Amino acid sequence: MTKIRIAIQKSGRLNEESLQILKDCGISIDNGKDQLKASSRNFPMEVFYLRNGDIPQYLRDGVVDIAIIGENVLIEKGEDISIAERLGFSKCKVSLAVPKSVKYNSVQDFQGKRIATSYPNTVLNYLKGKGVTADLHIINGSVEIAPNIGLADAICDIVSSGSTLFKNNLKEVEVMLTSEAVLAVSPKITTERKELLEKLQFRIQSVLRARG
Ligand code: PRP
Ligand code: MG
After folding, report:
1. Superfamily per CATH, domain 4-90+180-211
2. Which of the listed residues 2, 49, 82, 111 has the most CB atoms within 10 Å of its CB?
3. Is the distance from the beta carbon of residue 161 to the nearest atom of ligand 1 less than 6 Å?
4. Domain 92-179, CATH 3.40.190.10 — does that match?
5. Ligand 1 pocket, mutate which of 73, 123, 160, 166 (most atoms under 8 A from CB)
6. Quick one: how far is CA 140 from the chain centroid?
């Protein structure tokens, strides 16, 4: 039997709510904690637990058919991948921040500055649009520590509650984009699996309506 293959964040902020929305859709997944692959008992679906940043490539290659992923990750790495549904959870911003003590005037202040980030494409596009060139330092996590250890003058990262910025004595000065979890679709999805996607979308839409 054909199954639709869905990628879900292995760990991190999207994992729980992604599984919850499937559950609310009446899809139960046998979930061995350390298993990277699981199946549903009552819907033709296979779940792959993957690292966030790898998911756009898996979609592109057609290794998975669909994914629940932060729109911000698609903007950074998967502009070619289409969105079937906006899911309304995991809302966040991708922002530029500087040390609290810095007097900030405008985005022009970033000219020639060192910016630490895990979102190089997003930052470059944003700054390019403003005619600003900066020196990017790409790091994969704990980005907010960079100004405090002298690695960078500023950072660009996800802002959700704002508490990571606050704890690291940083202030948000430019919001580059707002994001939420989305259901993304592989350009290589087959017709058969597209039918399963339609069934899933029908359920998701009623869950989202009920959530209001
Ligand atoms: C994420 C993100 C920010 C923080 C934002 O980091 O990179 O640092 O959460 O959330 P907040 O505004 O609610 O504080 P995460 O904790 O996932 O760790 P990582 O950066 O090491 O991946
Ligand atoms: Mg972080």
Report:
1. Periplasmic binding protein-like II (3.40.190.10)
2. 49
3. yes
4. yes
5. 160
6. 14
Q: Is the CB of 179 under 6 A from ligand 1?
A: no
**How far does the centroid of ligand 1 lie from the alpha carbon of residue 164, in Å?**
7
pTM of the model: 0.93
> In this predicted model, what pLDDT tens digit does every residue of 136-179 receive, in sequence order?
999 999 999 999 999 999 999 999 999 999 999 999 999 999 99
Interface pTM (ipTM) of the complex?
0.96
The structural domains of the chain, with segments of one domain joined by +, span 4-90+180-211, 92-179
From residue 141, give the alpha-carbon distance in Å to each of 40, 155, 176, 198. Answer: 32, 11, 19, 36
Neighbours of 129 (CB within 10 A): 10
Give dist(CA 153, CA 118) in Å, integer: 15
The reply to whether 4-90+180-211 and 92-179 are identical in fold is: yes
Q: What is the tens place of the pLDDT at every residue in 24-73?
A: 999 999 776 678 999 999 999 999 999 999 999 999 999 999 999 999 99
